[in-house]
Protein 1
Amino acid sequence: MTDARESAGPNGETPARHAPGTPCWVSLMVHGLATTEEFYGALFGWEFRPGPQQLGPYVRALLDGREVAGLGQLPPDRQLPLAWTPYFASQNADLTAETVRSRGGTIGVGPLDASDAGRLAIGSDPSGAVFGIWQAAEHLGTAVSGVPGTPAWNELLTFESASVAKFYQTVFDYEEEPVVSADFDYVTLLRGGRPVAGIHGLGQALPRDQGPHWVTYFEVADVDDALDHLVQLGGHVLKPAHDTAHGRVATVADPEGARFALLQRKR
């Protein structure tokens, strides 16, 4: 992982429109929307208001009145793996979706209009990891970063990084910065020289019950305090807090099993 914050204003505001290819939103589809709202609301201080309902009941999470993430309700008959899904900004969702298909990925939803908010598609890369495409209209995406309760980084956990990185590079015009190491398979994806996401090849260590998947890191003021709070709220600690070059990190899951990470940045 590396630092991927955009240049933020004095109150943590991100630029008005996300550049093409940059992560612009994260969303989670769950079975129990109301209880999930309670969990993340208590953990991150989020409040909620209704969003577009094209894919079923959906709410946007707000931090101090600014949108940071989305939560949606899965149909009762859909038994899909639960995972936070990053959306990458696009100037033309239809063209991006076409490129995904031509490079060996699939499009499972859309492209379709989400009311007046924008146009979206949900696809998967050749390894099966799910991601979203967002063409902004009225809804520009995550409106604040660099403060507790906001998405801080998105990282793809997959079998090996090279071929999957090539896919994302082609679709979103990324540059690549691989880690040259015999025992650590990692590629940082950049736009205009700025890190925007990471790809971590885990080989046979990849959890079999998950398969390749994206993990969203959320910033917190104190990881250890956040872990205590998370457990009290019914969440689970999957990998205890540990120090990294970029801060203190823990991998966790919400009460329904959706995995994410907590990051306390170095100050």
Note: The chain has two domains: 23-136, 151-265.
Protein 2
Amino acid sequence: MSRKGNRLDDVLAHILDRRLSRKQLRSLTTVPQGSVDFSSNDYLSLSSQPAVQQAFLSRLHAADDSNASAPSLLGSGGSRLLDGNSSLAESLERTIAAFHRAPAGLLFNSAMEANVGLFSCVPQLGDVIVYDELIHASVHDGMRLSRASKRIPFAHSRVWENSGTSNPSSAQSLEAVLQSLLQGREGSLFQAGTRNVFVAVEGLYSMDGDIAPLAEVVQCVESSLPNGNGYIIVDEAHSTGILGDRGRGLVCELGLEERVWARVLGFGKAMGCAGGIVLCSPTTRSYLINYARTLIYTTAMSFPSLVSIETAYNFLMAGHAEPLLSHLHLLIRKTDELLLALCASHNPPADLLRVATAVEPRSPIIPVLTSRPRSLAKHCQQKGFMVRPIVAPTVPRGSERIRICLHAGNTVAQVQGLVEAVEAWLVAHPERFYSST
């Protein structure tokens, strides 16, 4: 290696050392065999369902045995604009869009690529993107590449200025942000509908596990921008398969299909496979085909990838996932009940251990906040329960946690074992960090 290359490695090593000193260094790990999964996003456990696996393999074998013109089982051959498109990809887009009650859809290799492609190319010069401050990193990447004149955060899930929320964020409410645009130097352009405002939220937030107040978001945008130049984009990566009738998502659950401009769905969570799709109008679909660089310049999904999505959706649309979803909701309620009972029994300091309370818990994502997430995660892993520590910058500093992800494949006994492991860590913690009533 040249001296120049060595000097660069020295610079990179110094940057990594700084991150290590802040206890933020990331590394790749594997899950120990036999661990109970409380970490992955496979909420419905579809990837391990024998019926789903068998249907997937049967579909591949049928295509392989059909005739000489059968699709390649290895690669797609190129981008969709060249040789990578297929009738299966287009029929999947129509099927998925129809199931989610959308006019059209466009597949991407991941939900991240869908977000980057959508946000980077649609907003035009003079437009503004307003986003929930906890929006996913992929939206930030897309916004940075866009031509939007401004990117403005609003306080997480705080819609109205006088909502009485205890959100400690320094960001304004959505209502206040929109009003400031209308009253600013170019306010007349937004009032007249000449300039567009794109409002980005998630259906189910991946770190806190809370559900967006989407009906209020829609009401606020429509009342603030009555000329129809407010366009709501909902990232449903974590709510697909979990919320709504047969897993159609939050937008469908609330009947807001006609009032939300676009949705981004991910298949790597509850759907148990990989890929993503933008649900939108036919015109927007055509625009993305022409301008979304994450679609234009990437190799299209292979036949097996498309078949995995098709298989998962067939299972979902047929209603076969309903028993899995019912069991998952049972686990959500049980976990919430056990964690709240643990905190009530030991009354630990809030910085050491606390859980959010919900009137009606519905999310398979349950954060357990602690200032010592690595210690707690390591303890649980040693007991055979795979949970991960989540630290800054993935979450805001001061909100570090372990994130419990529940799955339909988990059992009540496993949940009880995990909570007992958390309690054992709490009880064994040094006295100077822990006090009980």
Note: The chain has two domains: 28-44+322-433, 77-317.
